[in-house]
Amino acid sequence: MEAFTQHTGLAVPLDRANVDTDAIIPKQFLKSIKRSGFGPNLFDEWRYLDHGEPGMDNSKRPVNPDFVLNFPRYKGASVLLARENFGCGSSREHAPWALEDYGIKAVIAPSFADIFFNNCFKNGILPIILDHDTVDLLFKETEANEGYKLDINLEQQTITRPNGEVINFDVEPDRKHSLLNGLDDIGITLQQEAAITAYEEERKKRAPWLFNN
Amino acid sequence: MAGKTLYDKLWDDHLVAQNDDGSALIYIDRQLLHEVTSPQAFEGLKLAGRKPRRIDANLATPDHNVPTTDRTKGIEDPISRIQVQTLDDNCDEYGVTEFKMDDIRQGIVHVIGPEQGYTLPGITMVCGDSHTATHGAFGAMAFGVGTSEVEHVLATQCLRQKKMKNMLIKVDGKLGVGVTAKDIVLAVIGEIGTAGGNGHAMEFAGSAIEDLSMEGRMTICNMAIEAGARIGLVAVDDKTVEYVKGRPFAPKGEHWDMAVKAWRELKSDSDAQFDKVVELKAEDIIPQVTWGTSPEMVKPVTGTIPNPANESNAVKKEGIERALKYMDLKADMPITQIPVDKVFIGSCTNSRIEDLREAAAVAKGRKVAASVKLAMVVPGSGLVKQQAEAEGLDKIFIEAGFQWREPGCSMCLAMNADRLEPGEHCASTSNRNFEGRQGQGGRTHLVSPGMAAAAAVYGHFTDVRELELQPITGGAH
């Protein structure tokens, strides 16, 4: 996983609540057995005017000019501003894979769905929870100022607005550590092998029926 | 000190290590695998040169991509075919037990787990699918994970987790005739919203929950995720134990006695503290129909579609307006006037034998309305299908004009060939009515199996309580 330390990027405002993972990456693209290549189909049904299927040449498809990601001023955006309960619905990790492949490094919202939130950290994307009023302020400023960039520093847990004002955010220490160092979660868990084996031996005694298949 | 909740007990029982950074290492007893979220996990394992830790802790079946029509020619869509083939290859290579597409035991992961007795009280279970919450109906800690965590469990049999908060949904009283588990859970989501359970494990309790069959409890826990909760739970009682007994993977002999003794403890203590409590009266629940593009956009069948003019919250107001536009519905219109183009009875929410009996009781002696283009019944597994056929339910459906299909996820998420065309309204027993969920431009209305069958017969939503139902004979499972 790529580490996330500091990132300065153009913000794009996706102004709707309860954006679900079906919207982030529609089901027909989940047939891929790869982890990469989902970026061109991020928000596929909103981004294009035709029906998308795997294998299509996305550069030739008609884009929806009314969808915010297609506005020329947001081209190259890497910080997604979102509303309540972003990422609700299915557990598909294809959702953060699509965001990551598109170039999104951080998502800022008042709240996230639990599984999506967790999946982001596994893929080098920083989901940031801010209170409703602060998110609202960022929406207004982004919409009012072309080229509005946010400077996100994970070590300091700060977001610096173009005017120099700083917003602090919370992040759980273990998630921060993994993301800052781009650590392999499985590798970390395997360091606790002795504890896992000890638990397993004890569990075999307490619930032997779970080991008899 | 206050007592423990069921979730507290399950958590404590699976705690391998409490780490200094606030995270915990939790042991995962069992994992279910399907073709969509496992290929990249197996690939990751191979790339890192790692081996699965416990092959016996995994059970696999293809469900999302499989055709529900004639399977003798395999899967027509080459991309779907490769995905299912990849699952088969991975299971063969590592020796994972898999019910392949032509196996009578194949079906939706969340149907076959309980059916096989693979889902057991007191276990932790994960699957790369958010509806893993279903298995909490057995007093198990079951939750959906992403593919990275599927790989993590394959490699370590553990997950790093944060303990969630406890939420109690208490439903007391008696449900009216024609009102089902699906209506309870839709009413709960309508009450607390799709984010209402975020960060919580959600236990369902109260006399109305105790009265439900295991199938009904599975329907409720299945949709805990639609209320934002990764985990749904119901305490173990006699029904739980009776359901599990004798199933292929259930403990036998002295292990059975030992297991049942342990399972009897799987309930929240009477003095347990919950962080949030929501109470509903069963008598107040009316058959539910979703009208919008989120499961929280739900109304009783006797109600009307909301008017955005009455909403003061700007984000919500815009949400209603957007949903009405997408669904092509008018504010204040009665729910019963919404026309239905297609009907889907199936999915991990409502494709078990009891669900099919409930729909058959409506379909028996009636005909699908001429205005309905397609009404289909997709059993949750090959064994559900077999039992339904033994009870003659297939004949009831076929005579009424429904199509009787092979088991799989089907039109719940439309990854296979079963889908809505743009603009079509569908009465669906599935779990999500998001934009495009059942096919691009499709308009989904979530309902119970009885309500779906009634919509098929009348061509629009109809209060199933007003219909005379035909008795369907069928014993306990």
Give structural notes.
The complex is a heterodimer of chains A (213) and B (477). Chain A has helices spanning 21-24, 44-47, 94-102, 114-121, 132-144, 173-181, 185-190, 193-206; strands at residues 6-13, 79-81, 106-109, 126-129, 149-153, 158-160, 166-168. Chain A contains eight helices and seven strands. Chain A has two domains: 6-182, Aconitase, domain 4 (Alpha-Beta Barrel), CATH 3.20.19.10; 184-213, no CATH class. In chain A, strands 4-3-2-1-5-6-7 form a seven-stranded mixed β-sheet. The longest helix of chain A is centred in the last third of the chain and has 14 residues, at 193-206. Chain A is of the alpha/beta class. Chain A is globular and about 65 Å long. Chain B is α/β, with parallel strands linked by helices and 477 residues long. Chain B folds into two domains: 6-263, 2-Layer Sandwich (Aconitase, domain 3); 287-466, Aconitase, domain 3 (2-Layer Sandwich), CATH 3.30.499.10. In chain B, 31% of the residues lie in helices and 16% in strands. Chain B has 15 helices and 19 strands. Chain B has helices spanning 6-13, 39-47, 78-94, 109-115, 147-156, 181-192, 207-211, 214-222, 238-244, 253-263, 314-327, 353-363, 382-390, 393-400, 449-458, and strands spanning 15-18, 24-27, 30-33, 58-60, 97-98, 124-127, 141-144, 158-161, 165-172, 200-205, 231-233, 276-281, 288-290, 298-300, 342-345, 374-377, 403-404, 425-428, 443-446. In chain B, the strands form five sheets. Chain B has a five-stranded parallel β-sheet with strand order 5-4-3-6-7, with helices on both faces. A five-stranded parallel β-sheet of chain B has the order 17-16-15-18-19. In chain B, helix 2 (39-47) links the parallel strand 3 (30-33) and strand 4. In chain B, helix 2 (39-47) packs across helix 5, helix 12 (353-363) packs across helix 14 (393-400) and helix 12 runs parallel beside helix 15. The longest helix of chain B is centred in the N-terminal third of the chain and has 17 residues, at 78-94. Chain B is globular, with a radius of gyration of 21 Å. Chain B starts with 5 loop residues before the first helix and ends in a 19-residue tail after the last helix. Classes of the chains: A alpha/beta (213), B alpha/beta (477). The interface between A and B is large, with 62 and 80 residues.
